[in-house]
Amino acid sequence: MRHRALATLAALTIGVLLAQQPAPKPETVVITFHAKPGSEAELARVIEKHWTVARELKLVQDSPHLTLRMNEAGNKVAFTDIFTWRDAVTPDHAPPAILAIWAEMNQLVESRGGELGLSITAAAIVSH
């Protein structure tokens, strides 16, 4: 009987501690991809696949989401993808399906102008 009482007390204590933790806050990111020449169409497809899988797994907020294609010097192409993770912890604990897509992305980009092939910047939404 004493073990059951201790187990119940422990469960209640853990429940109270978890309830006191602040809810994780969403994190908006701006990701820039410098496409390797010839990989532009494939990179666009993989960026879209990332968004689709992340939504299916409920890792991101539905909006805002925006993907931009930009022309850079030397007839090169870059993409920018803007979206909001469910919380800031999500990308640090990405599931295997997302990790596989990130590996694909990294094969399709190149460093350019002193910048990495793929860069991620946290941002704050001011208005939409």
The low-confidence parts are: none
- Distance from first to last alpha carbon: 58 Å
Which shape, going by the Cα principal axes?
globular
Order of helices and strands: HEHEEHE
- Just give the CATH class: Alpha Beta
Spatial order of the strands forming the largest sheet: 2-3-1-4
Q: Count of DSSP E strands?
A: 4
| Count of discrete domains | 1
CATH arch. level architecture: 2-Layer Sandwich
Largest sheet: 4 strands, antiparallel
Mean pLDDT: 87
Helix segment tally: 3
> Which structural class fits the helix and strand makeup?
alpha+beta
Residue share in helix: 25-40%
Beta-strand percent range: 15-25%
If you compute it from the alpha carbons, what radius of gyration comes out, rounded to the nearest whole angstrom?
20 Å
Q: What assembly state would you assign to the polypeptide chains in this entry?
A: single chain
CATH fold-level name: Alpha-Beta Plaits
